[in-house]
Amino acid sequence: MTRTGPVVPRHVLLVEDDPGDAFLVRELLAEVEPDLRVTVVDSVPAAVAGGLVRQCDCVLLDLNLPGTDGLQGLRAVLRADGAAAVCVLTGLDDEHLGTRRWPRARRTTWSRARSTARC
Question: What topology does CATH give the domain 11-118?
């Protein structure tokens, strides 16, 4: 099948308070998809404000943001857009945290602690 229109780059919203981690995630994403647009905000309120969650294809959400319990942050993102594709990033080495807390949700967790071994 041939595409007939211009290809629109995908847009990812990265919610990450640590500039070093944000840089790492952006670099990893650029290796896979150079045309990917990445918007970085440092808090859940910044992600929800102005409808940023609804303007992206995927939200990469740090589970451990200051001032927000991880699951509170996830709930806030999902309240902003119940159909949002959310990937939870965590420094915790617990891949099953999300599935225990959200058993019926189709969500993904990625542990930065294990990323070096998998890359």
Answer: Rossmann fold (3.40.50)
